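Q: I'm writing a short methods note and want an example of a predicted protein-small molecule complex. Could you take the sequence and the SMILES for flavin-adenine dinucleotide and return the bound structure as tokens? Please keep the output block clean; save any remarks for afterwards.
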Amino acid sequence: MKNYYFNEDHEMFRQGLKDFLAKEVIPNIEKWEEEQRIPKEVFKKFGDMGYLGLNYPEKYGGTDADFFYSVVFVEEISKVFSGGFMAAFSVQQYMSSPYLFKHGSEFIKEKYLTKAITGDAICSIAITEPNAGSDVANIRTTAVREGDHYIVNGSKTFITSGVYGDVLITVVKTDPSEGFNGISLLVIDRHADGVSATKLKKLGWHASDTAELAFDNVKVPVENLLGDENQGFFYLMGGLQLERLVGAIGGYAGSESALDYSLQYMSEREAFGRSINKFQVLRHRVAQMASEIECIKYFVYNCCKLHADGEYVVKECSMAKLLGTELSDKVMYQCLQFFGGYGYMEEYKMARMFRDSRIGTIGGGTSEIMREIIAKMVIDDKSYAKTTSKSNPISNTKKTDSIKEEKTKSNNQNTTNTKIMSYENTLNAMKEKAASADALGSILKLNFGENQIVIDGTNGGNVVSGDDAEANCTVDVSLEDFTAMVKGELNPMGAFMAGKMKVKGDTGIALKLQSLMG
Amino acid sequence: MHSFYFHDEHNLFRKSLRDFLDKEIVPEIDQWEENGRVSKSAFKKMGEMGYYGLGMDEKYGGVNTDVFYTIILIEELNKCNSGGTAASLLAHSTLAMEHLQKNGNDFLKTNYLKPAINGDLIGCLAITEPNAGSDVASIKTSAVKKENHYILNGSKTFITNGVYSDFMVVATRTENTGFEGISMMLIDSKWEGVSATPLKKLGWHASDTGEISFDNVKVPFEHLIGEENQGFYYIMQRFELERLVLSTGALASAEYALDYGLKYLSEREAFGRPLSKFQELRHRVAQLSSEIESLKSFNYQICRSFSDGYDVTTQCAMVKLLSTELMDKVSYEVLQFLGGYGYMEEYQAARIFRDSRIGTIGGGTSEIMREIIAKQIIQ
Ligand SMILES: Cc1cc2nc3c(=O)[nH]c(=O)nc-3n(C[C@H](O)[C@H](O)[C@H](O)COP(=O)(O)OP(=O)(O)OC[C@H]3O[C@@H](n4cnc5c(N)ncnc54)[C@H](O)[C@@H]3O)c2cc1C
Ligand SMILES: Cc1cc2nc3c(=O)[nH]c(=O)nc-3n(C[C@H](O)[C@H](O)[C@H](O)COP(=O)(O)OP(=O)(O)OC[C@H]3O[C@@H](n4cnc5c(N)ncnc54)[C@H](O)[C@@H]3O)c2cc1C
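A: Understood, no commentary inside the block.
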């Protein structure tokens, strides 16, 4: 199968990244899982390699690469056997810092974005509160303007990197009387006075620290407001597609990694005198999962391509997140089964992959919320308008054009070698043919660029003329191809299907050329 | 979402095809379901419109089009709510004609492919036998050389268009060894010794399914398709396209079924509101439409790779497996959406449900797909 999305440069980038992860990350995962944190130097190392600013402009220290470099990045960090590691780094680059870039002032970009890109600042996005998760509009944390500052009070929970991080992009109510219309985004220094964090214990994602945060009269300078006041909800919505795509990639890439890991084990483990990969039921389960992974992977690529081209694909991204994360749970469950008792032991990586996967269908919008969105769009025909138009980091990137280039190939076959008749001869030939054919019943124009032939079949017969006129249907065609049709060497239907005739207006009329040509 | 594959020309083609189907095919379907066959005139009309020429040799009346025109044809035919009609009209081209197009000699192409493109002759592909289905290599029908003929003996079963077709592309044994001794031959249904009986079945009522027997049928050498003893490979080579036809068909039917279910949900009321307002049903719709959408995207990408000449054997098995299983799930759920009406022939869900059930069996069962995939990826 051909992959139309990645070119050689992407693959070289992937190889370099893999080497880097094998050297700097994978040997340390166990330790980080144990200590329940990733050392700051690791972020710095990623920053030094340029991995934290893949889609940001060079001006801020970014690489300004196309979106499929990010796809590679997320795929590979999803294969280091630690969901917690993947979480911290995807929050850094795809769930928090994009708001700095998209909505931050120059001041904010200079002060925070550049540091997020170098890895000097670890970033979090703080939306969820103890009493508002799925229902974002219902948050209670307030920011009250006092002179040059906002005074922030409230609490947040489940915040990735909130304990050891540096920058909190915090969702606050600037107008508590409003629902989603009263929400703003503030950049809050994690170490500011009045900000405190408690580390939460959790089922999986052990390498990533998750915080419950309290804001007690925290003074935040007004220049730390992102974009405009009370527009925060819309900014969040604008960031969701990227977040969902990252979740989807994590889902299938993690699944791929677990399946590979299992296949290795299955080829080594023996039972009843043969390796367990010879048992048909296990083989079929592998086949089923591999198919589902492959399907969702290519679907996600398709969504990524649309996203990279600047399309606002709410429905598709929600579908991708839903399917990718649910697949991951299914795959982890089955893969653990392949390992038998060893699957339950920490000595193997399956146990961790299993528990790390379980958050996929909850974080970043639960499966139920994804289905709510999809149902609205599929059933109520509701189409979500694009909430932010400008400065999407993705639409700034270079377009990936491989698909478009390849697709024209197949259309350009079967050129005929007919000698071109002159325009006058063609006109005369058409007059003859049209006279003996049934009346078209409408007006058809053949447009050769410089001149045209108009066949008026509205008055009982067909009147053929070289003068331009309004028509019910206009066919753009080269004189060469049309000549071939007149001579009976090219079938009009075939020419139409091969893209040699471009039809504007009623196609049915154009297809009547078939009968005109006799 | 799919503008990578379908351009203006394709969309216009789809529209004119849809108009044709709604006018010429759809009104006849109930009758065909009753009669157990699609009328010959339908093939003729399809031929006249050039639909059987898609991707076929221009020399014999075909048109050189990219694979997405064929995809459109398959999709729209599968949105007429008759699995049998689509199967019958497509077995002719995507099964029988494909073998002729790829490996037939000039004699066969002139005398059979050309009229098949015009819709004057109807074809079928006969591989399965009473004792050899999944295990193609174990077929028993044999062709023995005698003077300037082969003498063909044996039987075939479950053959779509088997009763009313004019010619049959038959897999037969020309050597006694397993898969290396199989050849493909074109058998004219008029020949002496060829007989067929229709089989009764759960669904696909509009398509005739035949059990065929060959009793000392004299087959001239020029009716051999391609080379002797290469039949197994020819069959394998056609599998990619065949599976894409089936996956595309299953996905289009699933889409059709879900649209139908949705329409019903929005019209039917219970507990004072339309069914489409109940969250549980809404979420099921969301789940199914996500699965359809992702598989469609996967399927098109495979079609694209296939038409660009890349090896997609594994992916074709994957997508055939997933699409047909999804279709069963969708047709089950849609029937559920309709409640008791779903069980009545007055509504379309019943036919959708029974027509779907063959998907995971025909053209290689789900189990065989998993065998193929497992072989490719394990070790
Ligand atoms: C490890 C971890 C890391 C996280 N990191 C972050 C982070 O960095 N930043 C951040 O802001 N948040 C973070 N979150 C929070 C996460 O986004 C929320 O947990 C999530 O949005 C769900 O909210 P909730 O937990 O309040 O569940 P609730 O909203 O209370 O939902 C509970 C259940 O009800 C269902 N439900 C809710 N509404 C509906 C409905 N209308 N119809 C049907 N069912 C419904 C849900 O699907 C779910 O099954 C993290 C969470 C975890 C566990
Ligand atoms: C309506 C209809 C139309 C058809 N049209 C045509 C046609 O036009 N031309 C044609 O040639 N054929 C046609 N077929 C035949 C179809 O291709 C076969 O039915 C199919 O290949 C399965 O073969 P079988 O029925 O002999 O089942 P079997 O091969 O007997 O299989 C029975 C069961 O065993 C399972 N099984 C078999 N082998 C294995 C294994 N190795 N591991 C695990 N499980 C296995 C199968 O998956 C299945 O569940 C048609 C069938 C139907 C029902």
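A: Remarks, as requested: The domain at 8-121 of chain B is CATH 1.10.540.10 (Butyryl-Coa Dehydrogenase, subunit A; domain 1). The two ends of chain B are 36 Å apart (CA to CA).
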